[in-house]
Queue: 2 jobs
Job 1
Amino acid sequence: MALFHPTLFCFLSVFAGASSDKLVRLGISRMYVESPPGWRKLVAKLEVDNEKVYALVDTGSPLLFFLWRHSYGPSCQNLLYGCYECSPKPCQAGPTKTFSFHDDTDVTVFRHHGTLSLGSSSVRDIDFGLVTRSTGVPWASLGLGVQTGKYHPYTSLINQMLAKPKSQRLIESTSFSLYLTPDGTSGELLLGGQDPSKYDGPLEYIRVVDREEDEIRVRGLMIGSRQMRVTVVSYLDTGTDALTFPTSLKQPVLYLLQTAGQTLVPIFEHSGTFRIACNNMAYLPTMTIFLEGLHGEDIALRLPPTSFVDFDGHTCFLLIHFEDKTEEWTLGNPTVIGHYHFYEWDKSRIGLAAVR
């Protein structure tokens, strides 16, 4: 039986937002996708040819794919993402292609097409992949990353929607936005633009320094009032469930998290995770990541402890990984908690603001 978060309310609708954008709105939430619970993934609920499925909301890839029931069989009932099958079954598998990701996982898919239901509307003849094999915990993906030639012949959902005849288009722009409430339990993905009524103040824009690789640039990290200056490539990747730093920062980051708050907070490493006593979470310092703006200025992304600490039913742990294979940073779905992100890949910029 799949694990469902009790506070999740998912919906899809077509809506003209406060910015006059033609929007498609999807409810999103951070949810456990495996049993026993691991780390929460940012997911949306979709319906494909009347099959109810979930998909990872992934700004790090443009791929749209779902799990094929023929490949995963009875295990589908234990996967939050669910599985898709043709009617009559099974689907006729075509040529496959394997895609590899930054976290050393990969999926092998073949192309299929179907109708994607969006509330009271639907989009016919949407191409997507069906997964025949994957490494790690199987997952489905709603990819929002930049479309490049290396993904051929697969095309993102947004680009396919825009390729429809004008009279059939539900959106008119490749831009999109997403946000989560400060408690991280619910939010929205808005395809086609933004809704300014959902955030406070003007958006502050960070620069996408390499659009084909979805790269941004980090210029510093402040924990409490202690600041470290760096210049490093980073990814704002909602398909990742943590903040990933290079191993070279492990000692200073953990030291400052323990000492730069209101009082000393012991952190214990256990089986690759960093744990704290839950009653100490309020004493941890805020983490502020400085990102490079459009004109070289610092744009501050402030993460209170509620954004980078989670509870698995037994213990509280930091949503932080340290990676020894790279000096790059990956800023995962914790950065969306309490924040509004507006992506304009065609303008090489991402707008950030606090959720209203």
Job 2
Amino acid sequence: MIHKPQYSLVETEIREIIKQNGPISFAHFMELALYHPQCGYYINKAGFGPNGDFFTAPMTHPIFGSLIANQAMLMWLQLGKVSPINVIELGAGNGQLGIDFERHSERIDNQFCNALHYTANDLSPKPSDFLRDWIQGEISFTFENPSIIIANELLDAMPAHRVVMHNGELKEIFIGLNEAGDFQEYFLGLTTSEIKDRFDTFGIELAEGHKTEMNLGMTKWFKYIYDMIPSGYLLLIDYGYEAHEYYNEFRMQGTLRCYYAHTLNMNPYIHVGKQDISIHVDFSTLRNIAHHTGFKLVKEKSQSQFLKDLGFEQYRDSIVRDRDLSLQVKNTNLRLLDLLIDDRGMGAFKVFIFAKNAPEPSGIVAQKKDSDSPSILATTRHMP
């Protein structure tokens, strides 16, 4: 008996598209695998949390969301305490950032909390335990009031083109099927001159055999964000490199990473629709596009320093000093907090704040010392 391979729904769809139309660009492959409207990886949210494939900062400890709320309040102060103040989270995933953000906003300032209108946006449906506004799919309208846009680890999940220097010529990587029916890479002509133009902008020349990625969707995305709000801020958090590091010869296979059951691999052609695919962000291009869109860069720091500037150490110390906590609870929370500022991991992520018709946010939100403000602790929704 011959056993036919069992493909996921989205892999079956991709294979049919290739059979009918020929090889597709890697960007198209990645878009289908992650964002197919019926069976893409991100549609079912299976990747989040301890039973998924990866953790993000909001799922690590609620103090992350608390400190983002602190930053948003400082922005709100600079915007003249406008009411309502829109906070729009793009790529909200399982909604954890919004839950922790809103919970903390109630602790820090009643006026800010009352003015706050938090909206989460994602391609997937609203989680059952998320009680605020949730927009599924692309936001098709503009906000009338000053607004704050939050995008945490969003750009790294955008579909990217892959290219290779082959026989001295820059080629684009397409995905087809070989005679055995397996996915195979083909090196074909560039789909757009924008790929070469971007390399030329930074004087990048790839070595022979060098494969790398390019996110061509950032230009449209920044324009989409800029037009969405009349004034306010864009808070971006992600991992990546400067262009000269991104395209360096010691990254001959590029920055593509796949995550399946909390295990890293470099093969996007396995577990299709069941594993995360991510591409590091080219920070040089990010700044360049944001500037030409009209945004002003007002702050850029590592995640570690960004969180510390917003009071991370004070919140951590409150757990250390809390006599009502067992040693086990303390140690668990301190371990999770340290992950947020670990310079070998999340702490090295880059934080950008861009402004549109708004000044640089400054100051610090003081932590309340009274008995009504207990230590902020991880819940069962956070990383174990």
